[in-house]
Amino acid sequence: MAGTDKTQTSITGGPAVILVHPQLGENIGFAARAMMNGGLSDLRLVAPRDVWPNPKSFAVASGAEGVIEAARVFDSTAAAIADLHRVFAMTARPRDLIVTVATPRDAATEMRRVVGEGAKAGIMFGRESKGLENDDIALADTVIQAPLNPAHSSMNLGHAVMVMAYEWFQAGDETPGRTLSLGRTDLATKEELMTFFRRLEPELDACGFFHVKEKRPIMVRKIRNIFQRAGLTEEEVRTLHGILSGLTRRSRTPGNRDSDD
Fold it and tell me: According to the model, what pLDDT value does residue 260 have?
């Protein structure tokens, strides 16, 4: 999906992303791309298997080349996290360890609090083939486990980083959960809606829609409520006027009367 807009200022910062013994250059590039999606910029690599810098990482980075260029390489996990105050480890399952476990969402909320207090945080991810080793997990304060299909919870490295990048960004995002994209037109005013109702209702009277006089007020309220709930724009109200004009013009044209057959 395209979504790069170079006219916008990119968000950077956030917790460090530590890839422990990553194996494929492509996966490092996918991870960097996921980081940029979530506004993360501090990439740290612990003893990558393939040569570094890796041209395959740049080939799939899709705009995240800056993250890769700024990536730092360390010989050990301990060295990569030495300056951090809180470390999270994303792994499918902690083995033979008593650990604090959090969901990605809870972990992201905790990271926002830590970073907001001026401390530094990081998230560790293991190698593609078998994840993090116990020695690496033991260096973390909290293990992150994503609640996924128990029969198929394995994620590749890029997916795992994307989950955390998304949750990190959402934890600090104030975008309303549901908005109306108006494009080139604005919401219709109540007066514009009332003008439409004042045209519609006499036509419904004329065609015999309100055939039970006592129920007319109730039916009018129901019809108005339908249009009110729709959140119509000015352009949509004009379209409804056009539809009404077309229908009434056709019904009044000689030879277009409905047959009783």
Answer: 46
